[in-house]
Amino acid sequence: MNSVLNIENLTKVYGSVPNQTKALNGITFQVMPGEFLGIMGSSGSGKSTLLNCIAAVIQPTGGRIEIDGRSLHAYKGKALAEYRGKTIGYLFQNFELLDNLTGRENILLPASLHKISEKESTQRLNQLADYLEITDVLNHFPSQMSGGQRQRVAAARALILQPRLILADEPTGALDSKNAKSLMEKLSGLNRSEQTTVLMVTHDSNAASFCKRILFIRDGVIFHELRRGDQSRQDFHGCILNVIAQLGGGHSNVL
């Protein structure tokens, strides 16, 4: 089976000599179709830089990023816009919904921009709204929604174009524990039932316990990997906490 995403010896350097900061220092890994991969690390470890490189928001200094066997460097102009819009779906920590659009309009905006027919986009919208339990807020503006509702609307927007890869950047960071658990259950359910491929950056051990595999980053390099296997989520959470302890991190209860 070929990978959806292949990262080879990726580096990212900020600044110039002698005040350089190496945010990524030769990271290599793959994401397989249908995988739910977590990236964990303390603040400044390079995890958000990694995600932004994959999203083509910033350019890496060196190394290679391949999507379905094609180098990201080869995407230019319209092809790059298509990549950002359809190949990947981005779920942000702070929702990034447009305040002057309703939930329905926010979700359908990518479909309109990428010329998806009204019939097909409406069908996708209805399916996602039903699954994510946001049907009752589709006609509401973001200011009229709870944080959990806004994030589930944002998730529907990220999924409406059926992207090959969902990039989730601290998706539970602005949510309370109840809404965080609900969102992760929905993402995990899509991963299981639809084989949706998810790459999630998080510092939250509870959110990470929903992943199938976790890469831990420190000082721009991968220093440990965990695979869930047949473990329960609670047991996997315990393994995650053991690794976090090596980083000097904290402790939290399982959702």
Q: Which labels suit this protein?
A:
Rossmann fold, 6-stranded mixed sheet, 8 helices, 10 strands, alpha/beta, 4-stranded antiparallel sheet, disordered C terminus, about 260 residues
General description of the model:
The chain is of the alpha/beta class and 255 residues long. It has one domain (5-246): Rossmann fold (3-Layer(aba) Sandwich), CATH 3.40.50. The chain contains eight helices and ten strands. The protein has helices at 47-54, 77-87, 103-113, 118-132, 147-159, 177-193, 205-208, 233-246; strands at residues 5-14, 21-31, 36-40, 62-67, 70-71, 88-91, 165-169, 198-201, 213-218, 221-227. The strands form two sheets. The protein has a six-stranded mixed sheet, sandwiched between helices. Helix 3 (103-113) runs parallel beside helix 5 (147-159). The longest helix is centred in the C-terminal third of the chain and has 17 residues, at 177-193. The radius of gyration is 18 Å and the shape is globular. Mean pLDDT is 91; it is low at 250-255.
Structural class call reads alpha/beta
Number of helices: 8
The helix content is 25-40%
Largest sheet: 6 strands, mixed
Calculate the terminal CA-CA distance, rounded to whole Å. Answer: 33 Å
SSE string, helices as H and strands as E? EEEHEEHEHHHEHEHEEH
- What's the CATH first level? Alpha Beta
Question: Which stretches of 5+ consecutive residues score pLDDT under 50?
Answer: 250-255
What is the level-2 CATH architecture name?
3-Layer(aba) Sandwich
Residue-averaged pLDDT, rounded?
91
- What is the name of the CATH topology? Rossmann fold
Number of strands: 10
State the domain count.
1
User: Measured on Cα atoms, how large is the radius of gyration?
Assistant: 18 Å
Shape descriptor reads globular
CATH-assigned homologous superfamily = P-loop containing nucleotide triphosphate hydrolases
Side-by-side strand order of the widest sheet: 6-7-8-3-9-10
Q: Proportion of β residues?
A: 15-25%
